[in-house]
Amino acid sequence: MSDNVVMTAMNYDSDRPPASNPVKIMDLSLRDGHQCLFATRGRTEDMIPVAELLDEVGFWALETWGGATFDTMHRFLNEDPWERLRTLKRYAKKTPFSMLLRAQNLVGYRNYADDVAVAFVDRAAENGMDIFRTFDALNDYRNFETVVKQIKKSGKHFQGCMCYTLTEPRLGGEVYNLDYYIGKAKELVDMGADSICIKDMAGMSAPYDIYAMVKALKAVVTIPIHLHSHFTSGMAPMTQLKAIEAGIDIVDTCMTPYAYRSSHPAVEPLVMSLLGTNRDTGFDIRKLAEINEILERDVMPKYKHLLDDSKVSIIDINVLLHQTPGGMLSNLVNQLREMDSLHRINDVYKELPRVRRDLGQIPLVTPTSQIVGVQTVNNVLHDTPDERYKMITGQVKDLCYGLYGKTAVPIDTEVQKKALKGYPRGETPITCRPAEVLEPELEKAKAEIGDLAVDMDDLLIYTQFPVTGKKFLEWKYGRSEVPASVKPITMEFVKKQDALVKKALAGELVERKSETPAKSERVRTFNVFLDNEYFSVEVDPTGESPVISAPRMVAAPASAPAAAPKAAPAAAAPPPAAPEAHGTRMLAPMPGMIIKYLKNVGDAVTKGEAVLVLEAMKMENALVAPCDGVVKGIKFKSGDTVAKGAVLCVIE
Ligand code: CO
Q1: How many domains does the chain have?
Q2: Distant-in-sequence, close-in-space partners of 641: CB < 8 Å, separation ≥ 6
Q3: Domain identity same for 362 and 432
Q4: Going by fewer Cβ within 10 Å, which terminus of the chain is more open, N or C?
Q5: pLDDT tens digit string along 268-321?
Q6: Within this chain, do residues 359 and 417 fall inside the same structural domain, yes or no?
Q7: CA–centroid distance, residue 319 to ligand 1 (Å)
Q8: Cα 210 to middle of ligand 1, angstroms
Q9: pTM here?
Q10: Please, what is the end-to-end C-alpha distance for the chain in angstroms?
Q11: Would 457 be classed as within a structural domain?
């Protein structure tokens, strides 16, 4: 046992003598836990049954909000994000709440103007948020300035994050070494941080690296140090223990059902490991067991279909091999799979460090992990031997312009020049604090959305998520019908499904063939065109996975070629859904959501001119005209989800 951890008494009861320096613990189950394991689909109604019990444990804080929850709640769950915060506060009254704030990116994916940032922090504090765990994907703390001023003004706790990233297998190298992090910690102290978080989003922190770092930090800063380390690579529990030996103040854990895989270490083994030491948490393990039982019995069955059980192993050693977050890797795999290009995964692994270096060796965390990931896939799929960066995403252009902040090392000048060619804000990158070049946004947003946004909370949903936010507000105020795909599933539904699966496995499902099953509320109608005949077909999804994504257009048949936006008209017979015999069809190069058409029917376009913006994997891609002509046959509108190969328009 280390000299820093001293055994005092071995006593199982919760009234055991208090430790001299108990480790404080933040529970992440209600935010990062389900964000990692269940695609952030946790619903408020499934948090309420354990909220009061969690409040009784003695956690330093409960992480309940921020990160991706704001996005998924309004987009996929038909839940008002602000309402969740207020509701949970009514059940957990004692323990402070913590949120993950992406600094000037707030809870979205780009830097917002200062007026939006101030309003957002103000409203979050007013709605009940106590601790603002703040990070910037580039560790550029100029992006903290506006939100920190408002956090302090609201009288709340400012926790400053250092995004932990590596370029080598272990801490060190030219960029991300111990000096780098010590320097960052001092910057945070100077900004008035109330605590510092080592934010290891990829689970790359090795036990002895963190031991050395915590020791070094403790020697130069006096505010509490907090470790956030994902389990992904399997090192996190060991890292946590070494951090505790080095004197860390606070660590993050999840309740067991929300722990491990790409999530966090579980709380229960840690409590037992520290029992009777001078760092004993003092937690009552039986209370934790009670929470687990409720989660296992009443909550988890509704989410198990979202758990990625494609692998038996709960550890992802790719993280150790590629120094990239597990979530990012699974996004890449999904993206490739959707484009029928999974066989290119090794090319992607090879290209990824090159793209990262080209883009300034940036940390890989939301949104930079998506920026690097999507650009990498674009390069692998669209580049030719004589041209790299053929299809540059809007976000990479913004990064090259300086809109995200200062990169750890300079961006490759060739890539930067190419990205900024014709960039609307200008071809010379900025060096100032990014938000300084952003015009105020709230007034403009208010004018756009009108009285559909009733208050500031509504307006902040719309400002950060103009397309899906507007859809949500229409559901919220009864202006459009709430689709079945965003409605919750019930335990009865899960039980019925489980029974069916059991029967199917036992080969007893034959008997059901004679009955016509009742239509569920998830039934959807499709128009099917065969030559000149037309059928209306009702489809009711069955099996294990309820539809959770927005309804997809059945656009092009599976036989449609995988064409890049610049591809010539498909040589194959035109799909039945696209009767246009003439002209060049612009096909969706990847599945995604239409952000907007930049051209209308009848507009003339020249080859290479942007026609529409398609969002895929949260990145916006401007798709350009493959030839000169006039735009025709636009079948989609802003907010529509399209499949790969869907005919976006015809240019004739
Ligand atoms: Co995390």
Answers
A1: 3
A2: 549, 550, 551, 552, 553, 591, 592, 593, 594
A3: yes
A4: N
A5: 999 999 999 999 999 999 999 999 999 999 999 999 888 877 778 899 888 888
A6: yes
A7: 15
A8: 17
A9: 0.80
A10: 76
A11: no
